[in-house]
Design a protein that fits this description.
- The structure is a single chain.
- By secondary structure, the protein is α/β, with parallel strands linked by helices.
- It has one domain: 3-Layer(aba) Sandwich (Rossmann fold).
- The chain is built from four helices and three strands; from the N terminus they run βαβααβα.
- Strands 2-1-3 form a three-stranded parallel beta sheet, sandwiched between helices.
Amino acid sequence: MKTIGIIGGLAWQSSAELYKIINVLVNKKLGGQHSCECVMYSVDLDPILILRDEENWDELANIIEDAIRRVEAAGADFTIIVSNTMHKTVEVIKDRVS
């Protein structure tokens, strides 16, 4: 099983819901008491919202890149970002992380 890197906290409620959904799906597929293997890094939403309102996408990209590096260092095989807004940072950071 691959280890999922989850960047959460960009509305902690969404992060919790995604974690639940992933585990339900893994359990349905594998049965027994199986659950996902994952590493979650949660960022503080308030500074993110301030930077978003300032349209400071470079600094937001740096924050997301740092979060991705943290889950990669913890063993994530791939990373998902639990956010609709942060997709704007993907083009900036996609070549800077594995």
